[in-house]
Amino acid sequence: MRAPNRGVGPGSSVDVDWHGELPKAQQHAFETYIKEFEGSYLMFSISLDEAISLHQGTWLSKSFQVAALTSELCAGLTASLENMLRSLSEHCREQGTNPTVAPLNPADFSNVWAKLVASSSLIWHSALPTRRAQFQNKIRSLRSMIRHAKQDFCTVAETLASEGIEVDLSASWAVMNRTHFDLNTCLRESFILLKCFMRVLPGIELRAFQEKVSKGLRSARAHFI
After folding, report:
1. How far from the centroid of its chain's Cα atoms is residue 105's Cα?
2. What is the pLDDT of residue 216?
3. Which of 74, 99, 114, 154 is the most exposed place for a label (fewest CB within 10 A)?
4. What are the pLDDT digits (tens) for 97-136?
5. Helix, strand or coil, per DSSP, at residue 173
6. What contacts 219, CB < 8 A, 6 or more positions away?
7. What is the reported pLDDT for 4?
8. What's the whole-number mean pLDDT along residues 1-15?
9. What number is the average pLDDT over the span 34-40?
10. Alpha-carbon dihedral of residues 170, 112, 182, 20, nearest 10 degrees?
C-alpha cells in the first residue's frame, strides 16, 4: 500500500491550508465569521461609493451626509477586524497554536505608510526564527495598518461631514479611496490568517476561541453605544 503524503496535511503550507478542508465545526465557525465581515465591508463599501457618486453628481451636501455614515461603518468594521486579529494572537500565545503564514507584499497596498509597514513586516518575516513569531509579526503589522487606516479615513470623512464645502478637496476623497483599498487588502489577509489558524486549531479549543472573539466584540461594540 502506498504511504500517505504527510507533507500536504494541515499546517504544511499557506496554499495547502487556504484550499484545504476544515472539520465541520471549524468550517461553520470560519464561514460565520467571513459572512459577518463581508457584510460589514459591503455596507462600508457601498456607502463610500454612494458618497463619491453624489459628490461627482454635484450633490455636495448629500455626499457630506453620507460621508458621516461611512465613518461610522469604517469604525465598526475596523473594530471588529482588529478584535479578531487580537483574538488570534492571544489564542496562539496562550495555547501554542502554530498556523502557517505568508509575508505581506508591499505592492498590495496603496498608501505610502501602509507600504512602509508591509516592507518592514516582510523584512522581519525573513529574519524571525519561527513560524509562530512570523504569525505574530504579521498580526501586529495588520493591526497597525488597520488602526492607521481607520484614523485617516474617519478623520477625513468626519471633517467633510462637519465642515462641508470649506474643506472639500479632491485630495480628501483620494485619501478615503486609498484607505478603503488598503482596508480591503487587510481584510483579505486576515481571512487567510483565520483559515490557516482554523486548519490547525484542535476541536477542543474552538469554543474557547469563539468565546474570546465574542467577548472582545462585545467590548468593541460598547464603545459605539
Report:
1. 15
2. 83
3. 154
4. 999 999 999 999 999 999 999 999 999 999 999 999 999 9
5. helix
6. 83
7. 41
8. 68
9. 97
10. 160
Q: Specify the residue for cell string 495555547.
A: 95
pLDDT for the residue 114: 96
Question: In this structure, what C-alpha cell is assigned to residue 114?
Answer: 501602509
Over 72-130, what HEC string results?
Answer: HHHHHHHHHHHHHHHHHHHHHHHHCCCCCCCCCCHHHCCCHHHHHHHHHHHHHHHHCCC
Nearest residue to 10 (alpha-carbon basis) of 2, 23, 20, 1? 20
> Tell me, what DSSP letter sits at residue 10?
T
**Would you state the pLDDT for residue 58?**
81
Sign of the CA dihedral with 161 first, then 218, 146, and 186 last: negative
- Enumerate residues 6+ apart whose C-beta is below 8 A from 93: 136
The number of angstroms, rounded, from the C-alpha of 173 to the middle of its chain's C-alpha atoms is: 21
Total residue length of the chain: 225
Does 219 have pLDDT greater than 80? Answer: no
CB 52 within 8 A of CB 157: no
Amino acid at position 52, single letter: I
From the list 48, 140, 122, 123, the residue with the least C-alpha distance to 86 is 140
- Give the SS3 label for residue 31: helix
